[in-house]
Amino acid sequence: MKLSDFRLSTRIAFIAIAFVAAGATTLLFIEDARLRDAYLRGQRVNLEGELQYQKLRLNRDITHLRQNVLFLSGTPPVSGIMRAVPNRGHGARDGDTREIWEARLLQIFSSFLAANPDYASLRYIGVADGGREIVRVDNRGGKIEVAPPAVLQAKADRDYFKATLGLRAGQVHLSEFNLNQERGAIERPYRPTLRAATPVFAPSGQIFGMVVINMDAIGLLEPVALDLPPGVLAYVANASGQYLLHPDERRRFEFEPGGKGDITSDFPFLKAIFDPRATEHFPFQAVAAREPKHYLAAERVHFDPDDPARFLLFAYHLPGAVAAQQIAAVPAGSITAGFLVLLLVGGVGLLVLRRVFAPLERIASAADTIAAGGRDVALPQNGIGEIGRLANAFDIMLARLSQREEDIRRANAELEQRVKERGCDLERAHRETEAALQLHKGVIDTAMDGFWIADEAGNLLTANQAYAGFSGYSVEELTQMHISQLEAKEKPGDTKAHIEKIIAHGSDRFETRHRHKDGHEIDIEVSVTFMHETRQFAAFLRDITVRKRMEEARLRESEERFRGTLEQAAVGIVHAALDGQFRQVNRKFCEIVGYDRDELIPMNFQDIIFPDDRDKNLRRHLQLLAGEISTYSIEKRCVRKDGSPVWTNLTVSLLRDAEGIPKYTIGVIEDISGRKLVEQQLHDLSAHLQIVREEEKASVAREIHDNMGGTLTALKMDVYWLADELSANREAAPLLERIGAMSHLLDDAVGVMRRVITELRPTILDDLGLQAALEWQAGQFQKRTGIQCCVSSLCTGGCKDDLDRTQTIALFRILQESLTNVARHSGASRVEIELRCEEGEIVLAIADNGRGLPEGHTIAPTSYGLLGMRERAEQLGGRIHFYSPPAGGFSVTVILPLLCCVHQKGEAEHDTHPDC
Predict the structure, then answer these.
(1) Contact 246, 265 (CB under 8 A)
(2) Interatomic CA distance for residues 834 and 891, integer angstroms
(3) Is pLDDT above 70 for 798?
């Protein structure tokens, strides 16, 4: 039985009850969803807030850890031990022994561990002896223990040790989170550890050791799982997805003993967050398609500012069963009572509606009769309310129905007349449209530019005579073709992609090549528009073959002019790829290096650079490619084809395209061998003059000593004889006074003669060597100026024996000039002089604690003292450095190659380059 078979009152009652029931059910579901959303929204706010807090806490603790390790590396005992080790356990500056410094450092470490209970151990590790620990202090359950020397270990094989060796001063290496190891084995019970290490450098710039803090990682990770809402589970994983923190303690750090479980296996939805290109935040959301759903929130936490790629993953997991238990629900009793009340109201309403709708049934019967064409109907009389008004309305309808039928017949006649008139108007509009189309077709056909229309698949629908003329096809042939059959520049796949691009952008303008019917290609300029209403392309095409030929002719002329300029240039010019491969070279460059053009093109620029100059050239080239410099000029040696070197001045610049992308390099090479030969001759002449000058000083000193010294000694003896002869004669008293004055003058003359001889050439330098001469000069300087002057030597006897006479004199003269500058300009109270040997070189360092040089000061051309020192060092193949730190003071460091190393290097170069 259908619903329409029931009485209207029954249907209305059923429909009302259904609406009320549906509304109640809908409200029930809405309330349940509201309670669920409120619960999940609260959990989302709590968990995401907790993630941000834990992220800030972890970074704060690790920043504090980095600051602490830098602080400890700068404590005085760390540098004190470093100074004492190479000086046989005694400080070169303060005299404290290594044992004293180690005791002080152990005291600092112990106090620091007591103040920081999260730190498991502090260590000072030396680089020498396999990276052996110098001192170590451990915190074991709150008990501070100092490791005796017998248990100190070598750590050179550890990853954090190797990584710290590559750091610069002030940098800190953070290790991975892993289990602590003792003597190569994992310590039990397990001790999760994070290590922070920073290098310690000697004054020479070489790394001496490192300070390492072992932090208990549990103190960093476990707070992530504290104070969470009931039922929420916390997880922490490293960048590889391996568990560092897990609700099941057996799975924490399980990858260390060989376990293979990770967080992406348990929660596949988290795989995307490990991608560096993905967002760092995984918002709180459902992660299971079936009920009960599970919920997850995660965050990437970057903890190493020196390596942004390193991170930890914090994740909070809310099981669906827990969430279902905690979400509030509508009471079942309230639901049952509501439905019972609904049924009772529906029954009462059904009875009332049946009585009310009884007159309506009579009206419905009358309506059926009227619809069937009858007009004799009986309607309820004297009705009141809506039923009475409805009966009266039916009476009025019967009266008007006849009138309406007459009106409709009259309206139909008028409508037929209007249709005829509208048909005439449409026929006239059609004729006007045809005329407009003929005009449009005439314009297109007489246009000088080609025109065609194609559908969105690329099939030509129409084309004008102009395009048919320069393509060689007839209009009928063109309308049977596809665009790809005309296109000569693009492949069919490229043409299809181009069509899709035009549809996406709406229009395009480009140059291409079309294939003529006879097979040759023509250059075409295309302007095309996609009409979205008709899904068709309208394209205007212009033959630009003549214009292209003119452009190519101008390009060839320009290229010929460029090649002529390139070949006639008086300097070598090279175009090279970014990797140094030659692309183009001119005649002058071929003359400079002795190769033919065809021989050079397959070669790389590095192939013709002198081996000792390659690193310098490559370093500047990389700076140019990185955009750090726009051009550079260097003087370097090239190797000619016959193996002989040639000095050149190279200027290199980088050519970029319109978008700023590097294309190739341009090099201008000038042969400066002649200039270099003159410079070398001047250098040799200066060195020769210096040697002649020193020999002349020595010769003058010997002449003064041998001739004037003997003469003054003879005069002194004569004066003594005269004084002895005249001492018995009282009348000769005035003469004796004059003789005494002569004796004093002779003593002064002898003193002046000795000082002049010493200044010309100290005999101690030739008799006792450089070390004794340095100590004597320091003593004389301290006696003359009152400035404390200390000399220390780290050279062995064999090392000093490798110095020749010229090097000894040069070092001594540089010391004299430096001490003169200290006395004149520095205002210092102490000067330290150190002579040492380092890897085949002799080093003389002079440092004072004076005012130093102003910031930004450079050596002026009139600073003859400093320039003279530099010239002496460079003449002997050495180098000299002047340094004034911001805190004050000035130092001069002279480095000369030892005689044995110079000979070995010279023999090696002679063997490698016999023609040089």
Answers:
(1) no
(2) 11
(3) no
Residue 660, by phi and psi: left (phi above 0), alpha (psi -120 to 50) or beta? left
Contact at 8 Å (CB) between 662 and 629? no
Query: Please, which residues bridge with residue 228 across strands?
Result: none
User: How confident is the model at residue 910, as a pLDDT?
Assistant: 40
What's the helix, strand, coil split of the chain in %, to 5?
A: 55, 20, 25
Instruction: Give the Å distances, CA to CA, from 426 to 366, 421, 430, 825.
Output: 48, 9, 6, 110
Tokens of 605: 């620029």
Indicate the length of the chain as a whole number: 916
pTM of the model: 0.40
Return the residue matching tokens 């040697």: 691
Q: Are strands 207-216 and 119-126 parallel, antiparallel or unpaired?
A: antiparallel
Q: Return d(Cα 700, Cα 452) in angstroms, integer.
A: 106
Instruction: Judge contact between 892 and 816, C-beta under 8 A.
Output: no
Q: Are 506 and 529 in contact (CB under 8 A)?
A: yes
According to DSSP, the residues that pair with 193 across neighbouring strands are 178, 216
Under 8 Å between Cβ of 597 and 590: yes
What are the pLDDT digits (tens) for 672-721?
877 777 767 666 666 566 665 666 666 666 666 555 656 666 676 767 77
Q: Six-digit token pair at 206?
A: 């070489």
User: For the chain, how far is it from start to end, CA to CA, in angstroms?
Assistant: 117
Would you say 571 and 548 are in contact if contact means Cβ atoms under 8 Å apart? Answer: no
Judged by DSSP in three states, 329 sits in coil
The CB-side HSE value for 88 (13 A sphere, CA atoms) comes to: 2
